[in-house]
Structures are given as structure tokens and as C-alpha cells.
Amino acid sequence: MGSLLAAVTFIVAFMLTGTLTDYRICEDIPIQIVNAIESIQDSNLYLAARKPEYDPQPLTQGLSNIVKSILLWLEKAEPIEQIEKNLTDLNQLFVTFAINSDAPIVARIQGEQAKIRVLIARIERIRDTNFLTPAYPLIQILLVSFFITLLIIGTDEFMTNLIISGLICLSLSYILVLIYDLDNPFEYDGKSSADVDLSSLKKLLEQLQPNRLEGLILSNTLIGSAIPENET
What's the angle, vertex CA 101, arms to CA 68 and CA 225, rounded to 5? Predict the structure, then answer.
């Protein structure tokens, strides 16, 4: 019994460790997407401060559409093609940006655009691929075998053995359910309790709204007026 319990515990611990490691990596993906979009928006507002004739609203709206489509894709299972379309639409907006800006800044925001594409592809792979599927039948067989073995073993104190066996099996079963949940951190179907937090994306969407943008444009215009002409 000691060897069987050790085998079951080792496999469960191995699966849980790997799943937690992947989950921690997934937690950073929305933050990285927010960082990339904010970097583009910072460049957009910077250019608006330098060039009063440049209108930052179209690019801001394009970034807002990307955030909306990502949230709809994750939470409402909307098609991913809309995200790809919104990302591609940025190219046209970058044309206007490039006319008024410098080549290094344009290269920077295009790099952030490519980074968003990579992160979206990573989320799609994580959502659509169950990496631990082959291991689930093995651990289920071991758990059932372990529970049955505990029940059929004769002891002088059956109730004590039953209580201890039940607690051990309950604990291992709970950990297995947790592994199931952590294996897909982008599920958002109402059944999962361990999904990656999307509050950073929702907060960013609020910041990209027109009423927020007007205040930022006014503030940046005042800053831009202090820039010497030879720098603008």
C-alpha cells in the first residue's frame, strides 16, 4: 500500500507542478498584451503632442477594437478571425502615423503589433490543446485502484481505515479536479474557478474610450507646446 500511495502521489504532484508552472506563464500573457497596446498608444499620444495636425483618434479606436475582440473571443467564444482582422487594419492606420512620425517609432509600434499576434497565437494553442490528456486516464486508473485496494484490505479497525482511506482519496480527487481546471486557464465558461484574470484588459478598454482620450490629448498638447520648435 505504501508503494501504491507513493506512486499515485508522485504522479499527481508531477502533473500539478507542471500545470502550475504553465498557469503562471499564462497569467502574464494578458499583461503582456496590455503592455504592447499601451506602448502603441503612448507613441500615438506622443505624436499627437508633437504634431497638432495629427489626429490620434483613429489609431486609438483601432486599438480599442482589438481589445474588444480579444475579450469577446475569450469570454463569449467569438471567432478569432475578428482579432486578426483588427490587427491587420492597424497597418492602414500606421500609414498615417508614419507620414507624421520617424522611422524608429514606426518600427517600434510594428514590433508591438507582431508581439500581440504571437501572444494571441499562444493563447489559442493553450485553449485548443490539452497537453495532459494522455496522463488523465493513467491517474484515474491509479486512483480507482488505490481506493478499491484500501477498501478490500482487512484491518482490525475498519471504520478508522475507511475514514483515513476516504480522506486520502478525497484529497487526491480534489487535486485531480484542480489539475483539470488549471490545464485550460482561458476557459471562461462559468464552470472554471481558476481562469486567468482579464481585469487588466478591461481596464485598458476603459482607458481607450473617447472621453478618456480627450483629457490625455489636452494634457499632451500642453506638454507639446513646451517642446522647442527645433525638436518638433
Answer: 95
Report yes or no: 26 and 196 within 8 Å, Cβ to Cβ.
Answer: yes
Distance between CA atoms of 12 and 179, rounded to whole angstroms? 9
Distance CA 50, CA 46 (A): 6
Predicted model pTM = 0.77
Unique residue bearing C-alpha cell 527645433: 230
Residue 85 grid cell: 482582422
Q: pLDDT of the chain along its 232 residues, tens only?
A: 677 777 777 878 888 887 888 888 888 999 999 999 999 999 999 998 888 888 899 999 999 999 999 999 998 888 899 999 999 999 999 998 999 888 889 999 999 999 999 999 999 888 877 666 667 777 778 778 777 777 777 667 777 777 777 788 788 888 888 888 887 888 887 667 778 889 999 999 998 886 655 555 544 444 444 444 444 4
Contacts 24+ apart (CB under 8 A), 172-176: 172/8, 172/9, 172/12, 172/143, 172/146, 173/143, 175/12, 175/16, 176/12, 176/139, 176/140, 176/143
8 touches 172 (CB < 8 A): yes
Which has the closest alpha carbon to 142: 163, 173, 167, 174? Answer: 173
